[in-house]
Amino acid sequence: MFYRECGNFKDNYASDMAIFPIPLDRYGFIVMLILALIVIPLTATDYWISSIMIPFYCFALSAFGLNILAGYAGQISIGHAAFMAVGAYASLILYGRYGIPLLPSILGGGIVSAAVGTFFGLPALRIKGFYLAISTLASQFIIQWVIVHWRWVSGGVFGTVEAPDMQIFGWALDTPVRKYYLVLCIMILLITFGKNLVRGQLGRNWMAIRDIDYAAEIIGVNLYRDKLIAFAVSTFYAGIAGSLITFCYYGAANIEEFHVMVSFALIGMIIIGGLGTILGSFLGAGFFVLLPIAINQSLGAFMDVVPSDILSNIEAIIFGGLIVLFLIVEPYGMARLWHTIKDKMRLWPFPY
Amino acid sequence: MTFFFEVLINGLLMGIMYSLVALGFALIYKASDVFNMAQGAMSLLAGLALVGFLEMSFPLWLALLCTVGIMIILAYSTVFFVLKPLVNRPPLMLFMATFGIMYLLEGIGQSIWGTDAKGLNIGIPEISFEIRGILMNTFDLTFAGVAALLVASLVWFFQKTRTGRALRAVSDDHEAALSVGIPLLKAWAVTWVIAGIVATVAGVAWGSRLGVQFSLGYIAFKALPVLIIGGIDSIPGAIIAGLIVGAGETLAEVFIGPYVGGGIQTFFPYLIALLVLYFKPYGLFGKEIIERV
Amino acid sequence: MGRKLMFTLFVLVVAASFVMVSGPAMAADKEKKKEAPKQYVPLLIYRTGPFAAGGSGIGSGWEDFMQLRNMQGGVNGIMYEWEECETAYNVARGIECYERVKSKKPAYIHPISTGITYALLPKGTKDHIPIVFEGYGRADAADGRVFKWAFNFPTHYWSQNTAKIKFIAMKQGWDGKNMADIGKYLKGLKIANLHIDVPYGQETKPILDDMAKKYGLVVRHFPVSWPGIDQKAQWMDIVRRFKADWVINRNWGVSCTVPLKEAARMGFPRNRILGVWWCGSEEDVLPAGPAAKGYYATNFHGVGRDFPMIKQIVDKVYGAMKGNISFTRVGSVYYNRGVITGITMDEALRTAHKKFGVKVINAEEMRWALEHMNITEERIKEIGAEGLMQPMKTSCADHEGGGLVRIQQWDGQKWVVASDWISPMKDYVRDMVEKSAAKFAKEKKIKLRDCSKVD
User: Fold this and answer.
1) What residues of chain A lie within 8 A of the CB of B293, using their CB?
2) Does some domain include residue A322?
């Protein structure tokens, strides 16, 4: 009843362009913000903050980056974990070895990642679809190889670069809550930026490319430039996410954290969550980051009844089953599910 | 120089092993536009089942038969429980669904037959011999023969039999095939069964090399560059690209590797793929999609 | 209709999972309060995934040991309580597990994975939780002055590799005693270091290169890209071009098995392949079948059931049907490694009980105890682990403690002991360790602990 516009009363451009045209959505968003900014840091335990919420945000950010590329511009990349690694190593080296302040270092990680990403995006100018998707796997393996073999990057045979203690303007970021705020602030900033990007000219160009690329070219979209920009922006997000998760959660950059399966998981996140939606990036990250942990923890209760090796396998079975189930229930992702509910609510209680 | 040819020939033989895996992908993609990430897991499941049956002291032929039986059940349940509800969805969703199937198969396979690595020996001789200083092995040659036989029979099946022609019709145009009375789901199920049999062959081939264990599923990664070089939907493409990849990566590792620190085997096939795709964006033999507005 | 049904099913699953998550958690809270305090031991285990053999073997051996101790009345009356956290050998999941168990105040963490160890070392140092990696992880952590919270007893990769070189020299005819003329037997010998191309595999490259210079060996590194299912190129090169005399098999999981098969196919003698101790389990050689016969592998403990400790476990734990793994694997390499892990933990706890009193030991106290362990020959005999484990004595400076390495050979059916305990080139390794640790300390600006002042 309350969830509707009551007709089209938009009388200025500002309201027409509003991100949340419906008041209830706006309130909902504010509630989420309050929850994330105030309630969670105050109530959650350190475990929840540091190893559930922080990775969740980082993966959501990275998934959003991939969503820009895959969901908006229609180019699939299965190498995003490697770009996270590039961001992580780059920012750690900038901060730890060259003493550049934290925020510029993180930004630097993103920029390096974007530069590398643009380079690996070049094949997209000619290749499409699954062919492109698989050839982006090249970036995953090449970057992995370079990081392992290039001693200057990996810092010796142990292949691990530790994250130093973090400081912003002399203020130490040492507790999980402070790290949480760092991640949250950067994430909100970047997501807002991204949302506006995809609402603008560039975003519309991308969507045109995604839908029919040669048609887009005919109406004057610069295909090559915009595809490369999509790669740059997307890998920039991946780089930032990688550096944040390393600084605030992993504590050390290790190439095995950015394994090819993580790349596949990122693709999974945006498909399960919903291509081309921001909400989808979050829901998908939730599905892939939180669900396995939830399954694992809840199965722990059956420890005494079921042999533990079977228990571990059941985790894979439940997870795989849920992926299939989700796709059957809502092939366009969890975000679409939410839209369906929203549409129903708009007409409720008189759906005729 | 002899060493060069030795590496080349053994690389080619290795490539055939990749082709065996890539074939399964190509078959399914051709018929149902599904990029089947679970292909590696299918081989794993087949391997696990085969070893399981052999451990129950089944004779080899019966064990193989039972394994194929399991693959048939798997094919039908995939088609009817997963693909059927997802008909006409974008290919990306189907790809994701197979990703879920991969987890399912890994979990189920390991719950039933355990996670221990097991040996698989089905009596293929492994005798090395030299011809003009070039070392070869009967095992590799056997599987080269098996692959050749497999491809020949697949080509025969698709060209000459009624079912095969129906499958080709389905892969060309779903709706047109439906309208002339070809049951779509049944056709898909048959394709998945064939892919399952190919996965079994790949599982046996790789399983006798590596032992049957979780890592058997990783052979899928080896097949991916082969696929895009040959064209995702091409059966001869899978074989030829397999040869290219096998020879290319082995030669690169042996002759370029020492200068750059080695271990370039993982990504070298992708470099070849990028090179090929630059000239032929749909692979060597892939169907070029002609788009019209 | 179908979709509606699916939707209902889906809602049910979600609801059920919520109940599953919240229900047991609350129930568990209620139960906990009544019982006597127990020593909490988290196990970062992997029973699934490509390396399941290692994780399940070690984890179960360890659990069975704790089960045995609990049946015998615990450590000085304190019972063990353990919890598994499945990592699937995945570093990110390992970190999550660490954070999860951290709040329950574990005495120490044993990640059973080199990758996870690399990731957890800085965390452990910060959170003051000892990270123990028995036979894996970084070698230079043996320098306790730099790595206060890390322990790699009873031996590490670098010690292992010097022992390997010694063993190779012995096979070439060296008497095994006179270090001065070992070079004579090694000179010009071609050794191929076949390693998996991840940080774990790279770890021994410096020490092998250094020894190559020292003894006139020809060492070449052959990286195998992950996951290492195809090593044809490497083996063509090793056998047909490099013509190696010995091959060091430094792989993990499936990539341990492939070399045996490839060597057989190339006609390279298997008794010239020497594996790391993570390539020396039954699970590594069985899939290779007859191709594995004659293969050498290093180890730092005994194999089989022929030890009083293992017999006790068989009788009491498996007799009472409380075992954690299929009975056939009891006594296998990984299983025994898990039992050793349990024994060292047990001994560390006893050491701590002596100093701090009999109670549940916390991480700080455990760290002290791990640094003051002294497991002598007599004590080993007393526990019933003679031949199963080596004596070791840790100190503030030396976090390695033991260092002895043993070579075993696969006879087609089981592992048989192929050498006595070989002591590594201790001073040489120590020197390397200190150099590497000093470099690390300089980078991280860690002040070395002065061990003369620590009690």
Assistant:
1) 212, 214-215
2) no
CA distance A244 to A64: 15
User: Any idea of the CA torsion for B280, B285, B287, B289, to the nearest 10 degrees?
Assistant: 0
Q: Complex ipTM, two decimals?
A: 0.90
Is A123 a domain residue? yes
Looking at CA atoms only, how far is residue C262 from chain B in angstroms?
Answer: 9
Q: Which residues contact B136 (CB under 8 A, 6 or more apart)?
A: B9, B10, B13, B128, B129, B130
Residue A261 maps to which CATH number? 1.10.3470
Handedness of CA C271, C275, C280, C283 (dihedral sign): negative
Are A327 and B282 within 8 A, CB to CB? no
Q: Write the single-letter amino acid at B41.
A: A
Q: How many other β-carbons are positioned within 10 Å of the β-carbon of residue A98?
A: 9
The residue written with tokens 């796997």 in the block is: A137
Q: Which residue in B209, B218, B245, B259 has the most chain C C-beta atoms within 10 A of its own C-beta, making it the best mutation to test that interface? A: B209
Cβ(A124)–Cβ(A289) under 8 Å?
no
Instruction: Encode chain B (293 residues) as per-residue pLDDT tens digits.
Output: 789 999 999 999 999 999 999 999 999 998 888 899 999 999 999 999 999 999 888 899 999 999 999 999 999 999 999 988 888 888 888 999 999 999 999 999 988 888 888 888 887 887 888 888 788 888 889 989 999 899 899 989 988 998 888 888 888 887 888 888 888 888 889 999 999 999 999 999 999 888 888 888 888 888 999 999 999 888 889 999 999 999 999 999 999 988 888 888 889 999 999 999 999 888 898 888 765 54
Q: pLDDT by residue (tens digit) across A127-182?
A: 888 899 988 999 999 999 999 888 888 777 777 788 888 888 888 888 889 999 99
Q: Which residue segments constitute the domains of chain C, with CATH numbers given?
A: 37-155+305-393 (3.40.50.2300), 157-299 (3.40.50.2300)
Give the total number of structural domains in chain A.
1
Residues 6+ apart with CB under 8 A from A296: A315, C85, C86
Q: Does A345 touch chain B (CB under 8 A)?
A: no
In 3D, which of A51, A48, A84, A89 has the Cα closest to residue A66? A84
Determine the pLDDT at residue C1: 42
Adjacent-strand bridge partners of C150: C131
Cβ pair B120, B208 in contact under 8 A: yes
Contacts of B20 (CB under 8 A, 6+ apart): B143, B146, B147, B150, B198, B201, B202, B205, B206, B242
Nearest to B261 among A149, A275, A313 (CB): A149
Give the residue numbers spanning the domain of A210.
Answer: 21-267
Is the pLDDT score of A227 beyond 90?
Answer: yes
Task: Give me the residues paired with residue B49 across strands.
Answer: none
What does the alpha-carbon distance between residue B198 and residue B196 come to, in Å, rounded to a whole number? 5
Query: Torsion over CA of A63, A64, A68 and A72, rounded to 10 degrees?
Result: 100
Q: Supply the pTM of this predicted model.
A: 0.91
